[in-house]
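Hey, resending since the last one bounced:
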Amino acid sequence: MPVVEATVVVPVPPELAFAVSQTTAPVRYRWDRFISEQHFLDGATHPDKGVRTFTRSRLGASMVSEYVSYQPPSHVGMKMVRGPWFFEVFAGGWRFTAAEEPGHTLATWRYNFRCHPKFVRPVAEWIGSWLLGREIRRRIAGYALGCTDPVVLAAAGKALRPS
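The structure tokens again:
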């Protein structure tokens, strides 16, 4: 199964880096230009294991995903429940570790996927690796900018200190 991954060091501690990665609309749209719409499903109001989300990309593709792990501040993982016809399997996750420089975090974003139908899988997965690799690098660059955006940081900080 192909895996694409991108990493970046951001100038915030792991707790805040994790919180930025989990921001929701409209704050999420400030740093994640891939998404045109995203919201929780089934009455959920915050991320947690088992919570489902709906996401629509700016290109129009949509996906329903479910959190399969949610362990602040170290990692989060999701899997596709329903999505584009060409994905048989799609999953993604974040991992956060303290960077060498105090107060900084190494953030890693990873996707793994399998395409179908089976007879086109080798070519589809080669193309998918290239496209998703390009997209994940763009998204993590946006995330890094979000980790310096005062509006994003304020919203993420508030999520760390719920009222």
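The domain at 3-23+70-160 is CATH 3.30.530 (Alpha-D-Glucose-1,6-Bisphosphate; Chain A, domain 4).

Sorry for the duplicate.
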